[in-house]
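Entry 0007
Protein: FAD:protein FMN transferase
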Amino acid sequence: MSKQKKITILLCGILAAVAAVLVFLWSRYGYRTQSYSNTSYAMGTYVQQTVYGKNAQAAATSAAQAVTALEDQISWRISDSDIHKLNDAAGSTWETLDSYTISLLKLSLDVAQKSDGLFDPTVLPVTSLWDFDGKQHVPTDSELKTLLPRVNYKDLRINEANHTASLKMHYEGVDLGSVGKGAACDKALEAYKKAGVQAAVVAAGGSIGLYGSKPDNSGWSVAIRDPKTSDQKAGSVGTISMESGQFVSTSGTYEKEFTKNGKTYHHLLNPKTGMPENNGLVSVTVVCKNGALSDALSTACFVLGREKGTALAKEYGAETIFIDSKAAVYVSNGLKDRFQLTNSSTYHLAS
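Output (C-alpha cells):
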C-alpha cells in the first residue's frame, strides 16, 4: 500500500471518529440548547412563552392549550364556564364546579377576608358597569348606589366536600380576572414539568412564571415595567433576580385606563366605593411561589396601600415592590438583595 493511500485511510478514520463523537454529543446534550418561543392569545391578553430543552415545542403547545382550557373554565364571559354557571344561578341554586375552580374561589375568599373586602371576587357588578375592555363607561352615583350592595364576598359560599358553590343574592356575580393570569402561569408550569423540559418562562398579562434552569446556567431576571412609559415604548424601573418555581405579578394603573372629560380612570377598583383606587400608588409587584396568589395579592396590595399591603403580603410569605406617583420605589426586605434599580434618572429607592 502506498504512503499516500495510508494517509488517506488514516484521515478518513479520524473524520469518522470525530463524526461519531459529534453524533454522540448531539444525542446526549444537543437538545438541551434547543429553545422554542410561542405567542398565543387568551384571557384578553398575549401569552408569551420561551421553552428550553427536549420537547420544547410540544411543551409550549400543551401549556397554551392548558391556558385556553382554564379560560373556558373560569371566565364569566364564556357560556357554560364554571363561573358563568355560578353567576347564572345567583340567588337560587348551588352549582357543581371543577375542583380547580373551587380552589381558586377558596384562595380568592381567603385574600378577601384578610384584606377586609378590599379584594373581592364578587366585584363583577361594578367591573361590568365600568366595562374597561368595551364601552368604557364612568358610572353615575346612582348606578353605583344600586350595584354596590351586590358586591359582597361574604355571599360567596363554597362546599369543598362536594365541589359546589353558590351566590346568596340575585344579580351578584364572580369575576376571577384578578387571579386568572397568575393561574394561567401555574397551569403552564404544570405542563412544562409534565413534558420534562429543561427550563421555561411564561408571561400572561402582568404575571410571569419561571421553570427550571436555563441552558447557560444564567439566573432568571425579570424587569419591572416603568409605569410612566407606553405599551409601545415600554421601559423598566429595575430588575429582580428570580428562582425556578417563582412567580411575579404586577398590578399597575397603566394596564387598563381611559380618559373621559379630561379625567383618566384606571381599572384597579376599590370594591367598597366602586371607583378607581387613588392612594398615590401607580404599581405593585408581588413575588411568591404561586401564580394565582401573586396575581391576587398584587391587586389586593394596590387597593390596600403600601403599609397594609406590605402586612398582607407578609402573611402569605410574599415579597413586594411598591411604586408611587412621586417615583419612589419601596422594596421589601426579602427582595433588597435581588432588586436592581436600572432607571435611577427617574426613580429612587425609598425606605
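Curator remark: The first helix runs from residue 3 to 29. Confidence is low (pLDDT under 50) at residues 18-32.
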